[in-house]
Amino acid sequence: MALNGVLRPGFAQIRVLDMPAAVEFYTKRIGLVQVAEGADGRVYLKSAEEYDHHSIVLRRAGEAGIDLLAFKCLKDSDLDHFQQRVESYGLGVDHVSAGEQPGVGRRIGFTVQTGHRIELYADADESAPNPGHLNPEIWPLEPHGMAARRYDHALVYGPNIDQTLDFFEKALDFKCAERIDLPDGTLAVWLSCGMKAHDIAFVKHPEPGKLHHVAFELKDWNAVGHAADIITRFDVSIDIGPTRHGITQGQTIYFFDPSGNRCEVFAGGYTYYPDLKTRVWDETQLGKGIFYYERQLNEAFLSVVT
Length: 306
Ligand SMILES: [Fe+2]
Known about the structure:
The chain is an alpha/beta fold. Helix content is 19%, strand content 36%.
């Protein structure tokens, strides 16, 4: 077993303005299923292909955005290990009790230099529907909406990108798969804790703690086209796409949930190995790096965050 420590993105807690509209959007349009609703009104969702209890948490609030990004570790003792390393690095660590979210064990949390709260946990119950472990069907529930297969990653905006990269590399064992270097310094980094081209990405921005997008993986390029049909059929607010990234090489489309949080559905992307050197993009090919077909950035993609 080569993968250990921090394994993958586990769940994201997103702030929404209108809960019924958000639930309809993430279930009917994105294709997730609701697995629980907490006494405090938070709603828990996941893809039917995911085993763990949930991967998206919706919390009603007066302002859209992201509360926290939680990553799953292989074993409970990893939490003590990373607490020690995060504290040695110089960041404060707090504890969240098991059961604060249904089906999730104890978590540790800390705020990284971009202003985002990151949490680690190791234990999660399974929830239905899931493919099961004996004679699993290709899908336990007929795919619906965009047929998202899993919550995959988030891209967030904030200051101190170089410091955040250093922390993720030294304290959490992430690797930098790709980076944008501009003449005035690092603009963005794509970080992997496993074998995907990215599990979290950061872009330089003056305001801390902002969300650019949460992303869901689809089966293939045809599924991205189907997502585009749904976006138009239901008049979902669109940002850009379908298109492709040079960075990570994913085939993608960006759009907004009813609260204004940007979502991505994508397919593809290369397999990452930790011995690969960081792929670097500079100002001469930045447009192609972000949008490979258009070869230029759009203003909303750079400036609209929640
Ligand atoms: Fe993305």
